[in-house]
Amino acid sequence: MSDYRYQNAFGPFLLKPAEHELLRNGQSVPLFPKTFEILVVLVCALEVFRYF
């Protein structure tokens, strides 16, 4: 998977792909690696479709 250099905030969550970290209200949310990768792909897709 590519090295993402951005952070994305949505609701109480902060997604930090470069650090492989998802935070909720500042607390780390444990995710399996594949689950995290899927979340990153979905959030990236949402960002792309936001402009259409």
Produce the secondary structure layout:
Layout: E1 8-10, E2 13-16, E3 21-24, E4 27-28, H1 33-49
Brief write-up:
By secondary structure, the chain is of the alpha+beta class.
Report on this model:
Helices cover 33% and strands 25% of the residues. It has 52 residues and is of the alpha+beta class. It has one domain. A four-stranded antiparallel sheet has the order 1-2-3-4, with helices on one face. A hairpin with a 2-residue loop joins strand 3 and strand 4. The longest helix is centred in the C-terminal third of the chain and has 17 residues. It starts with 7 loop residues before the first strand and ends with a helix. The model has no long low-confidence stretch (mean pLDDT 87).
Defining traits:
33% helix; 52 residues; 4-stranded antiparallel β-sheet; 1 helix; alpha+beta
Give the strand order of the largest sheet, numbering strands 1, 2, ... along the chain: 1-2-3-4
Overall pLDDT confidence: 87
Count of extended strands? 4
Radius of gyration: 11 Å
Please identify the structural class as seen in this structure: alpha+beta
Label the overall shape: globular
> Tally the helices: what do you get?
1
- Major sheet: size, sense and barrel closure? 4 strands, antiparallel
Strand-residue fraction?
A: 25-35%
Portion of residues within helices: 25-40%
The total tally of domains equals 1
**Gap between N and C termini, in Å?**
25 Å
What string gives the helices and strands in order? EEEEH
Q: Which spans of ≥5 residues are poorly predicted at pLDDT below 50?
A: none
